[in-house]
Amino acid sequence: MRINDQYWERRFGSEGMIWGTEPSPTALEARELFLKHGVRTVFVPGAGYGRNTKAFSRDFIVEGVELSETAVKLAGEWDPDSLVRCGSALDAPEEGELFDAIYCYDLLHLFLEPERRRLVASCLSRLRPGGLLYFTSFSDEDPCCGRGEQLETGTYRYKEGKYAHFFSEDDWKAHFSGTEILETGALRETLDGATEGLHDYMLRTIAARKKG
Ligand SMILES: C[S@@+](CC[C@H](N)C(=O)[O-])C[C@H]1O[C@@H](n2cnc3c(N)ncnc32)[C@H](O)[C@@H]1O
């Protein structure tokens, strides 16, 4: 079971740049980490309309993949320096250059466990040995955690037509057990959505290195 693939297409179609144009503070933190480690190329799965790719495209060569065609079009206008293709981040590429780093904002929590594992594996397959990854996801400290029907441990249908996995620190360790974890963090992020208005989310972050 997966969130209706049309959900995002519908939202981007009716709301456009849903979360405004400012990048997440986590994108700025990831950019600093990537600059410190001499990263040249960055891959962004679930790139949306380029709100966060734009934080990277001045300093790095940036590519992304995004499910919603409308978001891909918006990304081409908002951040023409990044190359965002339409497709699923769950699919591992058969060939292609390996990236130095991956930044993945609030995509992983959208899936049930088998697909979360698949997304992490697909991302690792796009990363060169020693490459860096920086992920964010909903936190189990978010007030929505525990709301609605429980679909699996830590995953709730917290809104009509929408579910998410709310990550604990142990979840990070379990999902990224094959990597060298550099740092984990937590933050409250405020988004100003066109339809939702000002909205706070509790997020978790992880920075890790693919083992060589
Ligand atoms: C919560 S939004 C985050 C958007 C974006 N990362 C940002 O920073 O603004 C999740 C995004 O993931 C996209 N998405 C959902 N499932 C996907 C998949 N299987 N492959 C690629 N993108 C996907 C959605 O269309 C949406 O743009």
Describe this entry's structure for a reader.
This protein has 212 residues and is an alpha/beta fold. 25% of the residues lie in helices and 36% in strands. The longest helix is centred in the middle third of the chain and has 13 residues, at 113-125. It is globular and about 40 Å long. It starts with 5 loop residues before the first helix and ends with a strand. The structure holds S-adenosylmethionine. S-adenosylmethionine binds next to β2. InterPro entries: Methyltransf_11 (IPR013216), SAM-dependent_MTases_sf (IPR029063). This is Type 11 methyltransferase. GO terms for molecular function: S-adenosylmethionine-dependent methyltransferase activity.
Q: How would you briefly describe this protein structure?
A:
By secondary structure, this protein is α/β, with parallel strands linked by helices. 25% of the residues lie in helices and 36% in strands. The chain has helices at 6-15, 25-36, 69-78, 113-125, 169-175, and strands at 41-45, 61-66, 83-86, 99-105, 127-138, 149-152, 155-159, 162-165, 179-193, 197-210.
